[in-house]
Design a protein that fits this description.
Length: 212
């Protein structure tokens, strides 16, 4: 079974439904315009997961620089697969700006792909929670990282990362709440956004850049 991922038409449908269901979010959607959730894209699952490791606790600019150095370690600046990563020694990886901890995460990811504990080609066919379970077994991958993979790589339409500080702050601000919402409150507010909570989240992130 291949699980639903959003097509360009799906994003349009999502916008219409969200605008109808939630007037507060609807006003934001009108202001922001088309959803750009599909624009941040790596070329394959492995590259996307490596990008997740590299970007942890870094600014977007710093992450892009280090990722560029990492890719430059391969012929034609193309990551050929987990075997090619395994062949690069720790010193070279550290020289590109990866911390020792992140090198460890990378090694664990490659080991799991190599011995079949993590089958990347299966991720498209698994349910959201199953994908989260597989990815969080990898060192350095928490639930939030797995949720970002679901949203930005697999284009799953209905992910709500209640642990994301940006989402918490955006809902607090946009809905004029007295206190920052706890996960249970976020889930309750987000019920109106089903089955397109991923799209709602993208708009919430955009709201942080606006004067409200």
């Amino acid at each position: 079974m291949v699980h639903c991922s959003l097509s360009p038409e799906g994003y349009l449908r999502a916008r219409r439904l969200l605008m109808r269901r939630d007037p507060v979010l609807g006003a934001l959607i009108k202001r922001v315009g088309p959803c750009g959730l599909a624009e941040r894209q790596r070329k394959d699952h492995l590259t996307a997961l490596i990008g997740s490791i590299v970007s942890q606790q870094l600014s977007t600019k710093a992450a892009a620089t280090i990722f560029g150095r990492f890719v430059a370690l391969f012929p034609d600046s193309s990551i050929a697969g987990w075997q090619a990563i395994t062949a690069i020694d720790d010193l070279a990886l550290r020289g590109g700006g990866l911390s020792g901890q992140k090198v460890g995460y990378l090694r664990d990811l490659c080991a799991r792909i190599g011995d079949g504990r993590l089958k990347l080609e299966e991720l498209d066919t698994l349910g959201d929670e199953e994908v989260i379970e597989r990815l969080t077994a990898v060192k350095g991958f928490g639930r939030w990282t797995a949720e970002m993979f679901l949203m930005f790589r697999l284009h799953r339409p209905d992910v709500l990362p209640v642990g994301d500080l940006g989402i918490v702050n955006a809902v607090h601000r946009l809905y004029r709440l007295r206190q920052k919402p706890k996960p249970e409150r976020l889930l309750k507010i987000g019920d109106a956004w089903r089955p397109y909570r991923s799209v709602a989240c993208w708009y919430l992130w955009q709201s942080l850049r606006l004067d409200l």
